[in-house]
Amino acid sequence: MSVPRFWRELDTRYNLIGSYCKITKTYHYPRRSFNPEAGRESIGSMEDYQFKGTGEIVSSTVVHQAQTGYEMFGPYCIAIIKLDEGPQITTQIVDCDPEIVRPGMKVKSVFRKLGEDSESGILHYGTKFILNEVSNLEEPEENIPDIEV
Amino acid sequence: MNGIVSYGAYVPSHKIETGEIASVWGADGSAWAKNLNVYSKSVPGPDEDVITIAVEATRQAMKRANLNGDLIGAIYTGSESHPYAVKPTSTIVAEAIGATPNLTAADFEFACKAGTAAIQTCLGMVGDKQIDNGIAIGVDTSQGAPGDALEYSASAGGGALVIGTKNVIAKINHTTSYTTDTPDFWRREGQKYPRHGGRFTGKPAFFKHVVSCGMMMMQKAGTEAKDYDYVVTHQPNGKFPIRAAKTLGFTKEQFETGLLTPRIGNTYSGAVFLGLAAILDIAKPGDRILAVAYGSGAGSDAFDITVTDEIAKMDRSETVEELISRMKIVNYATYAKYRGKLNMGASK
User: Fold this and answer.
1) How confident is the model at residue B320 (pLDDT cuts 50, 70, 90)?
2) I need a labelling partner for A122 at 20 to 30 A (CA). Which of A113, B82, B90, B113 fits?
3) Tens of pLDDT, residues B102-158
4) What is the pLDDT of residues B71-92, one digit of tens each?
């Protein structure tokens, strides 16, 4: 990714800056200048909004074949989460056993390194999510089918 | 009144036990743990570094005092493990707390005391009314070479202090420093791991500076050890700070709250910030604190602090103790993977 391309989206990635549509009273992430639901009326009615950074898991999966740059995490959890204000985003869930992540679990945002261009290239930082109160979670169910002996 | 308006802390959520490290090198783990008084050390995740820890600690400080970024006039980050050799950590922190663009920022380096030098700089800026609030950050993710004595203690963590004049939770009554050219520990440009002078890091380095600076501070403040409720010093291992505190006349009750190295390792520039945060987590109005940092090369900064009534109004949840209690143990293989000690070959 080119340096200016990442730099243009710093506040979106660092601080979860999205948009609020004053016409439909809905929240959008990432930032948009136009709300398709409200049509051309929304032009000029979209204002910046900083999301609180809290939400819950909608769906998740465990990635065993890590993509380039994520080898050190493997296996890791990628989830769709619904922010409290409404928008859904795809994100990595960190600092927990990826197998315990379940729909409905509460999450909150953290500031983490997202990647780097190369060993000598620019570092990319932004938002990932962690589970709230991991210590209260139940152990994951063993994924072993019942077999009658 | 100049002093601490708010504070924040961050420790990664993984740790490795001393015995696990020793087992890899065929060493006696319980002997190492006992000799260093370090039983486990924090391990940053693959996506954690000085910048992410600095942002987390600073965001906690901003949240505790309900501060907006536009109230911050300066950010100085002290560390010896900044991710960039050229490009400031502090500008990224500033952007992440919404403090840009009307502020000054810089990164400081003075081994383990760069963060406390940042506190002194903020005190000067605030005292001269150049800014309303400044943020001093001390954070490190330092490493010891595999098998080196430092590997048993070098860990990660840090803290942030908002220094200002309004709603001060802890007044900084006095500060003083003790600085000499003492080559006890260094890392050359481009080198991954630091080198040190072994036993030379003790008496002529850590003890001489910490004890001298602590005594100078009490002389300047007109105090004695018994006048303080808490003391926190730099803690490269779990033994040096105890011996230094006892030499200065302090008791276990005064130094145990701020002594975190036995459980989280040596967080370098973060050590005094985290120890002070652990004290502020439970401090009551009127409590008096002596903080003495140490940085190799070498120097000490001391602070004489009195907690004010404002601290009772602050939401002090998410304490350092809670951060430590959530830490989960990893083995040496995971630690080596997370800390970039694995050679991934030519394809990388």
Assistant:
1) very high
2) B113
3) 999 999 999 999 999 999 999 999 999 999 999 999 999 988 888 888 999 999 999
4) 999 999 999 999 999 999 999 9
Tell me the residue range of the domain where B216 lies. 170-310
Instruction: Report the alpha-carbon distance of residue A105 to residue B275 in Å, rounded.
Output: 33
Number of compact structural domains in chain A:
1
pLDDT digits (tens, 9 = 90+) for A51-102: 999 999 999 999 999 998 898 998 999 999 999 999 999 999 999 999 999 9
Position B31 in a domain: yes
- Evaluate whether residue A28 is within a structural domain: no
Question: Residue B348: inside a domain, yes or no?
Answer: no
Is B49 in the A-facing interface, judged by CB distances under 8 Å? yes
**Min CA distance, A10 vs chain B (Å)?**
8
Query: Same domain for B69 and B155?
Result: yes
Instruction: Find the residue in A nearest to B85 (Cα).
Output: A120
Phi-psi region of B43 (alpha: psi -120 to 50; beta: other; left: phi over 0): beta
The reply to whether B256 and B152 lie within a common domain is: no
| Statement to judge: residues B323 and B276 lie in one domain | no
> Which residue in B228, B274, B277 sits closest to B250, CA to CA?
B228
Classify residue A86: in a domain, yes or no: yes
N- to C-terminal Cα distance for chain A?
56
Nearest to B50 by CA among B235, B273, B223, B227: B273
In chain A, the largest separation of any two C-alpha atoms, in whole Å, equals 68
Judged by average pLDDT, the poorest of A51-55, B190-194, B202-206, B279-283 is B190-194
A-B contacts at Cβ under 8 angstroms: 46
Q: What is the DSSP string of A13-49?
A: HHH-EEEEETTTTEEESS--S--TTTGGGGTT-EEEE
- For the whole model, what pTM was predicted? 0.95
Please indicate, yes or no, whether residues B112 and B178 belong to a single structural domain of this protein: no
**Do B161 and B174 share a domain, yes or no?**
no
The CATH number of the domain holding residue A128 is 2.40.50
Task: Count the domains in chain B.
Answer: 2
Q: Supply the range of the domain harboring residue A114.
A: 53-132
- What is the dihedral sign for C-alpha B118, B85, B42, B38? negative
Structure token pair of residue B247? 């030499």
Residue at B89 is within a domain: yes
B241-B36-B326-B69 Cα dihedral, nearest 10 degrees: 40
B95 is known as an active-site residue? no
> CB distance A111–B59 less than 8 Å?
yes
**Residue B135: which CATH number?**
3.40.47.10
Residues of chain A with a CB closer than 8 angstroms to some CB in chain B: 10-11, 14-15, 71-73, 94-95, 110-114, 123, 125, 128, 134-135
- How many DSSP H helices and E strands does chain B contain? 12, 14
Return the pLDDT at A147. Answer: 53
